[in-house]
Specification:
The chain has eight helices and eleven strands. With about 325 residues, the protein is an alpha+beta fold. It has a single domain, classed as 3-Layer(aba) Sandwich (D-Maltodextrin-Binding Protein, domain 2), CATH 3.40.190.10. It is globular.
Length: about 325
């Protein structure tokens, strides 16, 4: 069995910082965000006025054709996010997608039962308050928020939770799924109604809140080859359009250059403050630092390097 939980859950902590700056969603059930602290993470160029970087002679900066025009933005504009690594595939449930850089995409697109907060607590997200548990036998009942929908208008439902569990424990995918920890203890699922589902366990599972961190859309994935369907995009395979239950929708991936997420205009948890996130893939910390200094990117995620602290503090 492969264990994907450490990198996946570690990234959720970093995602909190990015999502609070980038999404700034105003859901009633979410804890308040310290906007002053969030804004302090960005350079003076800001998110509302950030322009597309000018092309240079290096391969690291995408050309105008790959960049395209910015997506329509509400109040926000664009966040340009630099990363030293690029995803291999976009299905983070598979071994080849078991990386933080992949999870940076999926956690902005797929809905979650719980999300990790800055104080390391877990807050309900797509579910209506805390899930209900029984101890003997151990079970967990989720009630999904009535307003929660996929961007094509289909409700986020109990079927999506069940489909996620059945897919991750499907023996046909066993060699490629990175981890079934916790899911393999679920013995059966009881769909109470469209928005309510109970999972019964063979034994108590303490970190049950860390399950269903990404929930899959049953209505577009049923009958598809899960080992290939989301390799190149988180999309409805029939239409080719991005499918999302989170604040952002997958738009395009120019491999070797950048990946774009655009605001989900049908997001059920409030307005999305930033119109798009463009993830630039530049495999060199020095180049990323220079782009950050010059305002060509707003944020970047380098490997930990002590000497980089002084460089960034001087900006």
């Amino acid at each position: 069995m492969h264990d994907k939980t450490s990198p996946r859950r570690s990234w959720l902590l970093l995602l909190v910082a990015l999502s609070m700056v980038a999404a700034a969603c105003a859901g009633d059930g979410e804890p308040a965000v310290d906007e002053t602290a969030a804004e302090a993470e960005l350079p003076d160029v800001g998110t509302e006025t950030a322009a597309e970087p000018t092309a240079d002679d290096t391969d690291a900066t995408p050309d105008d054709e790959a960049t395209g025009d910015p997506a329509p933005a509400g109040e926000g504009g664009t966040i340009l996010f630099g990363d030293e690594q690029e995803p291999t595939i976009l299905n983070s449930f598979l071994i080849d997608g078991n990386s933080l850089v992949t999870t940076k995409v999926t956690t902005n697109v797929l809905p979650h039962a719980y999300v990790i907060q800055p104080d390391f607590s877990l807050a309900p997200s797509v579910i209506e308050g805390e899930a209900e548990i029984t101890e003997d036998p151990f079970s967990v009942t989720y009630t999904i928020r009535e307003e929660a929908v996929w961007n094509d208008g289909t409700p986020v439902s109990a079927d999506d939770f069940v489909f996620t569990w059945e897919t991750l424990t499907n023996p046909d995918y066993a060699e490629q799924i990175t981890s079934t920890d916790g899911y393999d203890l679920i013995t059966d699922a009881e769909v109470v109604d469209e928005k309510t589902v109970t999972f019964n366990y063979s034994e108590p599972y303490a970190p049950w809140r860390l399950l269903f961190t990404d929930i899959m859309p049953a209505h577009v994935l049923e009958g598809q080859d899960f080992l290939t369907v989301w390799n190149d995009g988180i999309v409805d395979p029939e239409s080719g359009e991005g499918i999302s239950g989170g604040p952002y929708v997958f738009d395009e991936w120019t491999k070797g250059q950048q990946l774009r997420l655009v605001a989900n205009t049908e997001y059920w948890d409030g307005d999305v403050a930033v119109g798009e996130i463009v993830m630039r893939y530049v495999g060199d910390t020095t180049t990323l630092s220079q782009q950050f200094r010059g305002g060509e990117i707003n944020m970047f995620d380098p490997q930990p390097q002590i000497e980089l602290v002084d460089t960034l503090e001087a900006l």
